[in-house]
Amino acid sequence: MNKTDGAVQAFFATLTDPAILLGLFAILISTLVAIALAGLFRSWYRKRYGTAPRAGFSARVLDVTVLLMPILLTLGVLSAVYVAFAANDLKTGLLDRAMQLTAALVVVRFGVYTLRQLLGEDSWLKGWQNQFTFVVWLAVAFELLGWFERIEAALNNIDLLPGKETFTVWELLKTLVIISIIVIATSLIARTIERRVMKVTALAMSTRLGISKFSYFFLITLGLLLGFNAAGVDFTALTLLTGAIGVGLGFGLQSIASNFLSGFVLLMDKSIKPGDVISFTSAAGPNSGGFTADNFGWVQELRGRYIVVRDRDGVETLVPNQFVIMNSVINWSYSDARVRLRLPVMISYRDDPEKALLLLQHAAADHPRILREPGPVTRLMSFEDYGMRLEVRFWIADPMNGVNNVRSDVNRTIFRLFREAGITIPVAQRELRMLPALDHDHPDFAPARDT
């Protein structure tokens, strides 16, 4: 009989011990009773408080109570069974281990919940908290059961880099754990800095966003470097690998890196900030007044790679930061929200321009969104082939409420006033004269000649 067979027989002999079986049965019954009680508690909680999320400290306390209630009930039932076993002089060693593991699970679950609250509701831990809790609790359980040293010795025998250098599975896991702990710690620091900076109203919003994002990326990068250093990773052994990866990233991620740098430039120079009204310009036509409302919208967010622009139809456009840096963008609220609009109109040479200018003044003066100071002005701009070109100019202070709607209202008023006053708006016309065919012998006939 070899050692393996002896270990297997000893294991089954221990497992079939009446005291062990009684302890396992008691643990199973305690767990089922705790699950049933936890289900009753959750049903009562939903009937009393509903399922709608709530804010505040009391709501957080209730949430963590509901979260830990199954484990706490299990620990309570196991404690009652432990007292009963001790009173009847039964073995309690298995119950001791079960209570230790259950108490460790309570601590780990509460710690993960607290960590998720510190990182924020939109952090990566929100969707992975159950898996993260299980992994951490499993590591604590191995330490409590005395299995940790055996697992460490077994994993240390598996070498991932055969040769002169050794890099075992245990060293890999230790590196990942250390890096994760340091990165989580730096993430908490970065979140704290972000909350503090965003509350400083003396700084512009773009400056606050720039400081928070820069500190976040800087601290995360610093955390990774410190994690590798604390884990004892030799960077010289990875020079060739990191060089190849760097070259590949340089070519493949060039556009992404450019967008990230452009995003920091936008945050630092304050050219565009959340709440600004912008539009992307194209070649302005002769009647556009120098402006265009194409892609008109509000800046919702400044992200690392793009900005979010929401238009009047509710459509959110993700504009790459590099595009904003490299192309012309009209910021309607950069330093002053007031903007001037110009509306051109043509009148016939048979009409009185002074009367038409006065009507244009009236058409712009009665609109509620047009400023009284400075007030609307009218100009006779030029004499064209088929009429006189007039222009009315006026200012508005709320471009975020739309620009073309003001143009439309004023144009409709102009058309109504001109029609009532009998002023004609001409259109371009061309005359085509049909000359009769001339005979070659006619004295007026002159053949075309090349010169």
Q: Strand-and-helix sequence, N→C?
A: HHHHHHHHHHEEEEHEEHEEH
Distance between the termini: 120 Å
The whole-number mean of residue pLDDT values reads 75
The structure class reads: alpha+beta
Measured by DSSP, the beta-strand proportion falls in 5-15%
Strand order of the largest sheet: 4-3-2-1-5
**Major beta-sheet overview:** 5 strands, antiparallel
Number of domains: 4
Query: Which geometry do the CA atoms define?
Result: elongated
**Number of helical regions:** 13
From the alpha carbons, calculate the radius of gyration and give it in angstroms: 39 Å
Helix content: 55-70%
**What is the number of E strands?**
8
Unreliable residue runs: 282-293
Name its key features.
single chain, 451 residues, alpha+beta, SH3 type barrels, five-stranded antiparallel β-sheet, three-stranded antiparallel β-sheet, 13 helices, 11% strand
Task: Provide structural commentary.
The protein is an alpha+beta fold. The protein has four domains: 17-146, no CATH class; 147-252, no CATH class; 272-331, SH3 type barrels (Roll); 339-421, Alpha-Beta Plaits (2-Layer Sandwich), CATH 3.30.70. The protein contains 13 helices and eight strands. Strand 7 (377-383) and strand 8 form a beta hairpin. Helix 4 packs antiparallel against helix 5 (129-145).
Quick summary:
By secondary structure, the protein is an alpha+beta fold. Helix content is 56%, strand content 11%.
Please outline the helices and strands.
Layout: H1 3-15, H2 18-49, H3 57-87, H4 93-119, H5 129-145, H6 148-156, H7 169-198, H8 205-230, H9 239-252, H10 254-269, E1 277-280, E2 297-302, E3 306-310, E4 316-320, H11 321-326, E5 329-331, E6 339-347, H12 353-365, E7 377-383, E8 388-396, H13 404-421
Antiparallel strand pairs: 1-2, 1-5, 2-3, 3-4, 6-8, 7-8
Helix pairs in contact: 2-3, 3-4, 4-5, 7-8, 8-10, 12-13
